[in-house]
Amino acid sequence: MPNPPNHARYRDFTTWAPCVYAVDDAWFEGESGGALFDNLRLGGIHDQRRALTRLRDHIDLRRNEVVTGTSTYLAALVAQCLESGFHLVLCNFEWLEENWQGEVNQKGHALLLDINYAQRSGGADVHYGLTLIRDLLRDEAPQADICIVSGFIKVLEDAIAEHRQEGAWWSIRGFQRVEKRPGQVAADLAGFAANLAHKNQKPPDVELMRSLVRAVDEGWGHPHRPGDVPADLPMRARYAEDLGGIKALYHGRQRNKRVADYRIGCSTVTALLETAGYPFAPAPAQAIHLPWSPYGVLWLVKVWTLLRAMEAERSPEDTAEFRVDARGAQIVVPLNPRYAQALDDAVNSRARKGAAADAFEDLKSNGLKIATELLARMRPEERRTLEACMAQVRQFDLVFPGIEHGAAPVLVVRWGARPT
Question: What domain range includes position 372?
Answer without folding.
Answer: 204-415
